[in-house]
Amino acid sequence: MASLSSAPLRDFDRIQSAPDVIDEFPSIITSFLKRHRPSRKAFFRHFAALPFTVASDPGLLGQIHLIYQAAMHATRAAVYYLPHLDSPALRQRKLRILIDDDGLPGGETHHYQLTRAFLNIGAKSLLPDEEFGDLEELCRYLDAETMHFVRLAGELYRRSLGPWCAVEVLSVDWMRALGDAVAVHFPRFIEEPYFAECFSQRVEERHADESLAVTQMVLRARPALLPDTLDDARMMAEALDGVWTHLDRIVRDARRRARNAGTFRDAEKGAILEQ
Question: pTM for the complete prediction?
Answer without folding.
Answer: 0.88
